[in-house]
Amino acid sequence: GQNIDQPTEMTATEGAIVQINCTYQTSGFNGLFWYQQHAGEAPTFLSYNVLDGLEEKGRFSSFLSRSKGYSYLLLKELQMKDSASYLCAVSDSNYQLIWGAGTKLIIKP
Amino acid sequence: GAVVSQHPSRVICKSGTSVKIECRSLDFQATTMFWYRQFPKQSLMLMATSNEGSKATYEQGVEKDKFLINHASLTLSTLTVTSAHPEDSSFYICSARSGAQRETQYFGPGTRLLVL
Prior knowledge:
The structure holds 2 protein chains of 2 kinds.
Chain A: E1 3-5, E2 9-13, E3 18-25, E4 32-37, E5 44-49, E6 53-57, E7 60-65, E8 70-75, E9 84-91, E10 97-99, E11 103-108
Parallel strand pairs in A: 2-11
Antiparallel strand pairs in A: 1-3, 3-8, 4-5, 4-9, 6-7, 7-8, 9-10, 9-11
Chain B: E1 4-7, E2 10-13, E3 19-25, E4 30-38, E5 45-51, E6 57-58, E7 67-73, E8 76-81, E9 90-98, E10 106-107, E11 111-115
């Protein structure tokens, strides 16, 4: 079957760095996405990885290892507004998104 | 990035009535649109996939006669919740994908439906 695993909840301190991991097993692979979702709002696109390696975009970076079925989202210089759920999703062989359950990130002052 | 709008943003209706939700891609042509439902503290659940000009493909467990989807143009898809009941109260989110950028889905802001 298809499966996306990510931690349910993480806590970090303002100004620090946090890494959110995602492992996946899917039928086919056409890329991995990270989305941010604030409570009561729709998801917003953060990153897309289809090749192995690290993609950096400002304070956020995303890493992919296809051979390991593994990705992480790295958030640096955490701000209070980064408190949100972070969703990992994999595009399968039909370009359908398979969603993880999301990681709720709590930022403390 | 691409912009997707949804209307209305929230709606309250009486049990037994029908509600239509519109999803529009504002600056690109969406060959495929997706409709999701999200209950509180849960992840997104895909309800159906619609391709412009053809019938929607519904996920298992989603009643196609209850959730009518129309994707009549490359910029508009509608979801109609027919004979809504309180258990249909949820956050409905659409996303759109262009043929040119087949990988990335862009999400609308969502519609919060409350059925009394």
